[in-house]
Design a protein that fits this description.
heterodimer, A: 73% helix, flat, disordered N terminus, B: mainly alpha, 8 helices, elongated
Chain lengths: 222, 216
């Protein structure tokens, strides 16, 4: 996605945002956009999404590209850290793909996308929060576990590997195949596609979904 | 891989696997489908029990009739609110839709217990009141399951709130169906068990329905 398009399409969020002093500086560049231009852009995205629902790949790619900046804006508003913004983008794009049939083209695309992005942002914030609660600070960990011997560390690693193997077994066949081919056997996309008979796009999507599922299962998240 | 190219790669991959989709029907039409199922059950109960006893109770004690109407309106509004809220981007204000009718339902039913006993109508004992609890919970289970199944095709971003509305709609519908074959006068113990049944249905939906919907 080009930088210019990301600037252009950050605009509509000005209408959706609630007043907040934290946002003023970052939104200064886009707040000059007139409401009619924002509405027009929203309508354009709505038309693209409607075409995508009918199977138009070009319109779909366009609307998803436009959505990246919008998702980032929503995630920022939810308080997601800069380094986690792209995780929100990825999760939101996957959700949009999964639930694209729920979009009603007579309504705002931006509002529909904002609701999904806000939800995914909250999920990411919660999962980061849970992870931080489980992980201990390095110094504290060293003080507490400095005497742990190599044998127990080895046993722990073996247990973790076993948990991972078990978790991989529970994946759907498509996702398991993607993990095995691309992750474990370290094959290239082209090789994996040739081996499995699936296209590279399907393999990438399956791998992404598999990694998310594994992350959730191994970190005890639903 | 940089973040921008990660997004581009994902967008390309999603575009490559794009297939046409059947758009979700408007929430009011899906709510209507669920309400038609409830109406069909009501029709069967009317055929089995008739409406004489129910009308006689309402005629003698209008507050029971008002309470029952509140229950029916609650079932309709809670079902509509649940279907609407399950679609991303819809206002949270929809959750308030069933509140007035719920207050009417609870208020009128509560007042019904404060007035004098209806002459000629048997007073319910705890054993019979238990049947009311079993009726409401057992009818609520399939009605809740049906609505969860229908709503899972949407994308409930607030799964617990949606599940609570599903529970409220199912409990209100079941309590309204019970009204057709409820031939006893309302007493405090009867009302208590109705309220307990409704609380169980809503609580179970919030606990289990929320989980089911969050994975939708």
């Amino acid at each position: 996605m080009s930088a210019s398009s990301s600037l252009t399409f950050d605009g509509p969020w000005v209408l959706l945002r609630q007043p907040s002093s934290r946002r003023l500086n970052s939104d200064k560049a886009v707040s000059t956009e007139t409401p009619s231009a924002s509405e027009q852009a929203d309508r354009q995205r709505a038309a693209w999404m409607a075409a995508a629902q009918a199977g138009d790949q070009r319109a779909y790619t366009r609307v998803l590209n436009d959505s990246v900046a919008l998702i980032r804006a929503v995630a920022r508003r939810q308080g997601v850290a800069v380094d986690a913004l792209d995780d929100v983008v990825q999760e939101t794009l996957l959700t949009v793909h999964r639930v694209r049939h729920t979009y009603d083209p007579t309504r705002s695309y931006d509002a529909w996308l904002a609701a999904i992005a806000a939800r995914r942002a909250i999920d990411i914030l919660r999962s980061h929060g849970r992870r931080e609660q489980r992980e201990v600070h390095d110094e504290f960990a060293f003080d507490t576990h400095a005497d742990r011997d190599d044998a127990s560390a080895g046993a722990e690693r073996a247990q973790e590997a076993q948990r991972l193997r078990k978790a991989i077994k529970t994946l759907s066949p498509g996702q398991r195949e993607a993990v095995e081919q691309l992750g474990l056997k370290e094959r290239s996309l082209a090789e994996a596609a040739e081996q499995t008979g699936r296209n590279t796009g399907a393999l990438k999507v399956n791998l992404h979904r598999a990694l998310k599922t594994l992350r959730d299962r191994l970190h005890g998240e639903p | 891989m940089s973040d921008a190219s990660r997004h581009d790669a994902l967008i390309d991959a999603l575009g490559a696997e794009l297939t046409p989709v059947r758009r979700l029907l408007p929430p009011w039409r899906r709510a209507l489908g669920w309400l038609l199922v409830v109406s069909a059950i009501a029709a069967v109960l009317f055929m089995r029990y008739g409406c004489t006893t129910m009308l006689r109770r309402w005629d003698a004690l209008p507050d029971l009739g008002v309470g029952a109407c509140g229950g029916v309106i609650t079932a309709i509004t809670a079902a509509l609110a649940a279907f609407v809220l399950a679609v991303p981007g819809r206002s949270l204000k929809w959750a308030w839709l069933p509140v007035p009718s719920t207050l009417l339902w609870i208020g009128a039913s509560g007042l019904g217990c404060l007035r004098l006993h209806l002459p000629g109508t048997p007073v319910v004992d705890m054993h019979v009141a238990n049947d009311c609890l079993i009726f409401i919970t057992s009818y609520s289970v399939p009605l809740s399951a049906l609505m969860i199944w229908l709503i899972r095709r949407a994308c409930p971003l607030r799964p617990v709130m949606t599940a609570v509305l599903i529970g409220l709609a199912s409990a209100a519908a079941s309590a309204s169906l019970l009204e057709i074959c409820h031939s006893y006068d309302a007493t405090a113990s009867d009302l208590f068990l109705h309220a307990l049944a409704i609380a169980i249905v809503i609580g179970a939906n919030a606990a289990m329905g929320g989980r089911l919907l969050s994975r939708a």
